[in-house]
Amino acid sequence: MSQAQAQPGKQVMPLAEALEKLAKLEQENKLAEADDLASRMLAAMPEHPHILHLAGIVSYRNGRVPEAIARMEKSESLAPDMPLYPRNMCEVYRGAGRLEDAVRAGRRAIELAPKDARAYFNLALILYEKLELEESVRVADQAIALEPDYPEAHFERAEALLLAGRMKEGWESYEWRFKLKQAEGMLPKTDKPQWDGTPLPPGKLLIIGDQGFGDCIQFGRLIPWAALLCPQPIVAASGELQPILKQIPGIGKFVTRWEDTGEYDAYIPLSGLPRLAGIGTDNVPPAGYLAAPPELVEEWRVKLDRLCPKGKKRIALVWAGRPTHKNDKKRTLKLQQFAPLFARDDICVVTVQKGEQISQAGGYYGRAPLLNLGPEIGDFLDTMAILKNVDRLVTIDTSVAHIAGAIGVPASLVLPKAPDWRWLLEREDTPWYPSIKLYRQHEAYSWDGVIERVAAAL
């Protein structure tokens, strides 16, 4: 804002300082303050390209995607040779599901700044979304060539390789995940080495339940393999996982705090075991390594027999994931999107949804009776026991899918077109969990027809 536009008697912040403040507010997640400042700056200088660009980023962060795109496209038209603008537009278009526009923006950013590693990384992300995995790896490699210690580029490379089924290469790049900013605090502060697979005395290996609940459940099957080489390993993980991971044979001690680990000679993240064990698509250890306590299964059987109409199939349902998950927009649905399921009059829908999204059950309308068990579920053992008393689980990609797979309960898992790497490509089954059937989007960001296929197959 220029002094000429200032009101008499008011001190006006210099433009450079205002731009810096706006960028800082956005980076610090002070989005309401950023919104207010952006609006005031736009009112004063509506044609300034960088104000428009930053205001667009703030709009995007606040969920106003069409407004964000309009502002950022205008900024790009006013300053078409500014490489930062298409580089950031790449991610905004991706969030809006406009993948072709995202590719165009990504390639334009590289054309304007061919030495910018971040531009290559952003394009690699879009190519993953388009399932152009070889090209995604190639572009990620270009980012790494420019910036060898770029953890995000290494990690994107890993995910593309793993999704393509190139496990050996993928696991190696996957090791870069602990250099990502969001991984801070996942590993203990120690001078002990990461385990390299050589035998250790009993109780001297620390296995860390890193990443999310689903990952820990999935990779928990490899703890017995580690225990063959290092008997009675210490397992450090969230207390919520303790009741189920303690079922796995070979564990010496389970802890939930670093200070309780005691002495150990080496550590390994749980998600690092597949690399050491040489796991590929053809040698995944079998499922069935977890089980619901029989007495709890019986308790929930009595309750469900009382509450579910006799003669109807019991279909458990989870429709929403953890809002803080990096891909939550791709994997969370609204309860009403499962309407094809609710139109069936031969089923009883048993919700095992947890969290704030349970409230959607209050607006349920459908032919199938709905039993909302979410508020009664205390822990993962309850979820297991309920699943053992239903005919099938229908779910998005969340920890409950892993629980069903690990205990052998039939499940229908709905997936985005570009799924998480573990579900691989173009297949209806998964080597990790034989009881799960996969239902994929035919078109990116569109659930049209997916739930219909699930409902028709029940």
Could you explain the architecture of this structure?
This protein is an alpha/beta fold. It has helices at 15-27, 31-44, 49-61, 65-78, 84-95, 99-112, 117-129, 133-146, 151-163, 167-174, 213-219, 223-229, 242-245, 273-277, 294-307, 328-331, 339-342, 380-387, 399-407, 450-457; strands at residues 205-208, 234-236, 253-255, 266-269, 313-318, 347-351, 370-372, 392-395, 411-415, 436-440. Helix 1 (15-27) runs parallel beside helix 3 and helix 4 packs antiparallel against helix 5.
| CATH domain class name of the largest domain | Mainly Alpha
What profile does the largest beta sheet have?
6 strands, parallel
List the domain count as a whole number: 3
Query: Helicity, in percent?
Result: 40-55%
Q: Strand order, main sheet: write it out.
A: 7-6-5-8-9-10
Reported CATH architecture of the largest domain: Alpha Horseshoe
Q: Helix and strand string, N-terminal first?
A: HHHHHHHHHHEHHEHEEHHEHHEEHEHEEH
CATH superfamily of the largest domain: Tetratricopeptide repeat domain
Q: What is the general shape? A: globular
Helix segment tally: 20
Q: Measured on Cα atoms, how large is the radius of gyration?
A: 25 Å
Query: Separation of termini?
Result: 62 Å
Which regions contain 5 or more consecutive residues with pLDDT less than 50? 1-11
**How much of the sequence is in beta strands?**
5-15%
Q: Averaging pLDDT over every residue, what do you get?
A: 93
Question: Structural class, judged by helices and strands?
Answer: alpha/beta
According to CATH, what is the topology of the largest domain?
Serine Threonine Protein Phosphatase 5, Tetratricopeptide repeat
Total beta strands: 10
